[in-house]
């Protein structure tokens, strides 16, 4: 499940897009339970497959850099069984989507992109810009497009071009910022084994400038447009609350907000908003519009209870710091 690198970080923003798209179309989420379960299951299977092949193809580099690899504790037969299981399940979801060609193509494309990202001889991971584009596309852009399509009517290729274009722009920009941050975190190890990632080729200083001058402005502008389209209660208000929250954490817990480059006691800007505030705010607005959606809100809380427990813990501590 890799909860610290995938489940808690990459899935909630995609689910938030699903919730927000349904909310804007005035569709009750309980009426979309089958598409929602299909989204959750298909992404979980795909992410498991990606984790397995990425860890497998990284073994030599990880060992050369003295870095632990998650497959070290698995026997080859167990690893092969896990790969076969994920592929079988993925083919099952692909068959389920087969009556909607564009939906099936989007799901298949995510798998193909990550195979190209990890597997030699292509191995885009070691090919600079192509690697970061592949990761952002496979981990963010295509799953977000899948979420949009699962809300749209089956016969419709693209619904609401403004919403679709804004959401996909935001998703790609945030995905690029995420993979660049990850590559900077692994920069020393990747340099030690001469792995040609974008971070190794261009360096931390250039990446900081690109993110600060281009990627983050695009991401934030798209986010504001998304928040405006979702509305005050589900979009602008939670964004404002998050701004106060991150400022308070920075001041009281001595944490440092960062855009991309990892640092001690740092927190990535907007990360908790995408993972916690946005999905929760949209779900609460959906419950007001459709009372039965409370079941979806409860299920989301159970799936990500650890993240929300951490949020509650921080919120409880903040008044004590402020008053003290």
TrEMBL record:
Q: Which GO terms describe its biological process?
A: menaquinone biosynthetic process; vitamin K biosynthetic process
Report membrane topology. Multi-pass membrane protein
Q: Which ranges of the sequence are coiled-coil?
A: none
Any single GO CC term annotated in Swiss-Prot or TrEMBL for this entry: membrane
- Pathway entry: Quinol/quinone metabolism; menaquinone biosynthesis
* A GO molecular function held by the record: prenyltransferase activity
Transmembrane stretches, by residue range? 32-53, 74-95, 101-120, 214-247, 276-305
**Subcellular localization:** Membrane
Q: Which InterPro entries match?
A: UbiA_prenyltransferase (IPR000537), UbiA_sf (IPR044878), UBIAD1 (IPR026046)
Per UniProt, the keywords (alphabetical) are: Cell membrane, Membrane, Menaquinone biosynthesis, Transferase, Transmembrane, Transmembrane helix
What's the protein here called?
Answer: Prenyltransferase
Q: Please tell me the species this chain comes from.
A: Flavisphingopyxis soli
